Amino acid sequence: MEDSPFLDHDQWTVNLLQVCLHLQSRVTAAKIFQIIDHKPTVDRNSESGLELDSVSGQVGLKNVDFLYP
């Protein structure tokens, strides 16, 4: 069998998947840094506003996915 300069279907698929995963991770990282770099509109050092004596309740998470490599 001759060596071909072209990728076979399986190699091409793996390479495409790697490129897609790399691009997805870059987009995700950009979104995370956008959130981290966001300047809040609320001044946390301000004395104005309502200060609560206590807070109670529950927090629920829906449609959350975890992916481990």
Automatic annotation (TrEMBL):
Q: What is this protein called?
A: Uncharacterized protein
In its UniProt entry, the species of origin is given as Arctium lappa
